[in-house]
Give the backbone structure.
Amino acid sequence: MNEPTVRVASFAELDAPTLYGLLRLRVDVFVVEQRCAYPELDGRDLEPETRHLWIEGDDGAPLAYLRVLREPDGAARIGRVVTAPHARGRGLAAALMAAALRVVRDRPSRLDAQTPVAGFYARFGYRVAGEEYLDEGIPHVPMFRPAPA
């Protein structure tokens, strides 16, 4: 299988159809499939340093997505990691994570992983950095990856 093409853009660089597709994927999975009633549109997508990363299918619709934020202390935060149900098991999330770490570069980074997939993030150097907690009824763990040496 060919390595998927990962697209990277700031909010200002997203056209309306692409933005709609990315937000729809997030809502379809997080709000509908996982039944999490929370403010999906939290304002952080708009921040100038936020980078949106996604992989498109042959029809141009997004199959997988994540975003990289800048935290107040300068660290990066990876979040909203999502793959469409019909595209799971193809390594798309791994391709996105590898691309996200290229965006993060030499900064430390954090993420909040759903507990059952914490091992996935461990493959990229993340380690559990706190107690498990429930977010919308789903167990999560905070994870941290130090700046590369």
